[in-house]
Predict the structure.
Amino acid sequence: MNTVNFNVDGQDISAKKGMTVMEACEEHGITIPKLCQHEALENVMACRLCSVEVNGKQILPSCGLQVDDGLKIQTQTDHLKKYRRKILELIYRSENHYCMFCESDGDCELQDLMYEHEIDRFEFPRMYPEWPVDSSHDYIIKDSNRCIRCGRCVRACDEVVGNHTLSLGGRGINNRIIVDAGVPLGESTCTSCGMCLQVCPTGAIFSKLSMFKGVKKECDMTTTTCLSCSMGCGTNVYTKTGHIVEIEGADIHKESGGQLCEFGRFKPLANKGERIKNVILREDGEEKELSLSEGLEKASEMLVKSYRISAYASGDLTCEDLDAFAYAMRAHGALFDVVGAKRHRFETEVKRRINMIEGHFVTDIREIMKADNILLYDTSIYHTHPILASYIRRATSNGTKLITIDAYEDKFWNHSDKSITIESPKTQLTRLVNQVIKEGKASIEDLSRVSSILGGLRVHPKDVMEIVNLLEEATYDIIIIGDEIIDRWSLRHIFELAKLEGSYVISLNHAGNQYIKNLETEGVYEEPEVAYILAGDEEDQADMKELIEKADFSIVQSARRSELTEMADLVIPSLTMFEREGTTIDINGVKNKVERITEPKGGIRSEIGFFEELAKMR
Amino acid sequence: MVRKEILICSGTGCLSAGSEEIEERLMDELWKHELEDKYPLTRAIKRTGCMGPCNLGPMIIIRPEDTFYGNLKPADVERIVEEHLLKGRVVYDLLIEDIDGRRVEEFEKLDFIRGQKKVVMRDSGDIDPSSLEDYLKVDGYMAARKAIMDMERNEIVKEIKDSGLRGRGGAGFPTGLKWELAAKEISDQKYIVCNGDEGDPGAFMDRSVLEGDPHSIIEGMMIAGYAVGADQGYIYVRAEYPLAIRNLQKAIRDAESEGYLGENLFNQGFDFNVELRVGAGAFVCGEETALLSSIEGKQGRPKYRPPYPVQSGLWGKPTVINNVETFGNIAMIIKYGSEWFRDIGTEGSPGTKVFAVAGDVENTGLIEVAMGTTIREMINIAGGVADGKRFKAVQIGGPAGGVIPEQYLDTPIDYDSLKEAGTIMGSGGFIVLDEDTCMVDVAKFFLDFTQDESCGKCPPCRLGTKRMLDILDKITKGNGEAKDLDKLQDLAETIQATSFCGLGQASPNPVLSTLKFFRDEYETHVHDKKCPTGTCKALVEAYTINEETCVTCGRCIEVCPVDAISSGENTYVIDPEKCISCSECAKICPVDAISEGDEK
């Protein structure tokens, strides 16, 4: 008995048990007006527009009403229409909805409903409330004058992002969206994920980077995969006449609720360096522009005549690009490495050394939300893997205990149950915890003794005891290791702790494409003759710069001018994230498609072709 | 000589009337006359909860003879001590004059008290609320003892069910049924919640019970906890009730230290604890789902039902949530049985109801009557309409209720009859309005309250009530248009049909019921731009003084708040530019020489 049969507007409908009337109706092509309901969010039944008549007497919101056998639903009675028109007018006339001055004109759910209900004259005068416009944020403008208080942004910030930055404040007519305890958005705990503007039905929250670029309804939309980190978030990219207008999360029905992070949503649209269109050669203090074929020749000349070649690629490329680059570099006898691969190599090494089986590793990162206890080692994932960070925050809101260990600032301080900041060496704490667990539950005195032996450790024994207790209490605990941990000893201690406690491990590295785990990488020469760096549009270039400094001759293939390209001897154009085409592998090992969104605007059409040529020229 | 006991009402009303000063003076006097040996000071004077007749405060009762002195001034204390306590003579001129002008000696013989039937308010005004010992003296915790030691859980539920007790929070849901549903739920944890978020303007019965008899509520909750299998209770009180909070805190502490709360109560292996939660004063938190959200630390906004709190309430666990007054009845029902309870009140609504009587009556205060008492009888208990004026209407049920005009005066007070008359029981607000009251202004007052207290979740309530208020405002300012009344009706219908919670759905009621019974008054405001009672200042013309009748006594000059009156040759003159039409001068004039407008 998993289906129920009921009647909507005289039409017999069957639907799965547990569905709401609204969902069932939408499945059968019956649309019910709504403003506060959003498929990624909990239904709160606030806007009352979706009210339907049930069994000829009650009026109930269809987004909250569950389907049941024999229900008789009317969605379009005269009464309902009258109520909807009245509510719409109340909403429209109570705030400053002047469509022609609104950024969301054309992309507004309220506007659509006003047209649909043919409301062209009004019973009530405008109220002209004066709400301040908050434009303090780098990317987001919050204009309460166009806010209909549907609370979608608040729910998104709570339920999906787990950040609780936005909330509803004030009662009655003074009800409004407030940020933290009433601070401007730019000074708040906002993580700049932009989920609020994605769900906003009107022009109350919108992106500065998409302003004046076009109406989304008139854009082409392509679904692709974000390459910024290994979470593999689906993105809907809106383009108009070859320009990107806006980027939205595509995975609305998945665990991530369609969220994107700053790097997926805003950074690609933010103004970055100038595009590199030609090959640049720096010789004897002079800068020369070369054609692409001249550049190819120069590069192959340098590669052919050198013995110690280091090749280093960004981790945010497609599998195909990485393959092509690796092939060309191997052909020239280079040592090949990718961002994040070093960490992976250490991990494999440590795993083999301590006999750590694969079963200890979480195969699906969404498991985070089922854990009783999370031990987060290195909190930099707050910035490097924001979506994963949101899963942790959501888990803690549902009662999961969180222990955080960081060398510097704990970025999860307001979610953490036990926050430890230890200065180097970080490993000592885990070693201590290991020891305590091995010896069984030790008393505080024992711990003091242990810690005094270790000496110099600035952790109070009580803290250690608390961690031990938290780990022992949990039946399902997950240890997450951030990508800044790169020493073998830290990894070893954490893995040993996991083995002892029977914990599961999520290990993150800095690469966006986890294809690096399948690639043979061997590290790079410390002091190479030639360093060939495929940077793409990678932003984090510290390793790359280090490599260039030590090389006699450096080749950088990059999409945009940056400090890195200024240091290089030979600069070759590259593609941006949206010009690439191919596949990428996310942290769960799933292969996702990467679509070409915009035609290449730099000096190169395809990197794969370029590297094929380069491979031949040896 | 019998040891005397002086009860001094220390309810909030009397405290603000100055009962503390009276108490101080009493202590001084006792000391002066060295009576402290006879009446050890602290034990001779007992601070009690609310005694009921609030406009007689500050008041004391001297026991054992039960002599009642009200409206005391500090100067009266000396005489009471010297005459009454030392010489044993009642101070006649300090006794209260009852409605017929007789001076009444004993508290129980006051007309105000005689008409009442006290069940919930049984101990308030009788015992010291901060003393567990006092509560035990009036058989406190005996009902809990009986329930936990001698009764099966389902027996208790059955007893409450049989009693026919209905929720006193306003909606009148059968309490026994609620308990039965909660008892049937299988869960590792259940909760009992006491709703003390009393928010109706002018209502203070829950406050008085919590202040005057906190242990009775704890006992009621304990019995509920035992009956449904809950071991944790929460009392949710508004932050605006500091005395209730203080007394409850003391009561919980005392009960814990004396073993009436905690583990293994009455050695029957039953644990029960009570915690206090203080609300931040949002009216909507009186709605049960909003209240539970608030206890959980979330924003107080109503949630969708089902699931009902008895299935999934506080932190998703089965929760029984009852009003203060409901819990106040429990111990009595267990003690005397459901039969006894059914004998009070009517068939459909057994028991009593406490009303906070306010407005234009002689004696305001708390009145507890058996259900079925008519509205007319209620008004008589309160001494009738004040100053001999004509009765116009009574507003029952607070902002969610409506007005009842004269033709319904013989309506018995019970859930069903009030509903038929177009209002609701509500939490027990009872505001009597005399002929000088403008009904548009009454509607505006209540709507102003609800629109301010709307949580803001649903547009019909958040914005609709604001629009209705704007229209009423327009009407009372003399800018009303013919279609405004239809607009009001239209908006009211939308708000009623589409609002989420009771607060929203009921918010247009004060407007609808005044429109129903007093439409002509609205029309006079709209069409004639006149307020018949002179309440809406914008519609009242300046006052003038009739030269011929004026006796130049000068009283009007004294009362005029804006100095608009000056002396002319043979008479006084009102400057129409300055006059704000407050009507104070007309009221005070001994020869009725002042009237509105330019009438001669």
About this structure: The mean pLDDT of chain B is 89. The domain at 439-528 of chain B is CATH 1.20.1440.230 (de novo design (two linked rop proteins)). Chain B touches chain A at residues 282, 284, 299, 301, 304, 451-460, 462-467, 487, 490-491, 494, 497-500 (CB under 8 Å). Chain B has five domains: 5-111, 132-342, 352-434, 439-528, 541-596.
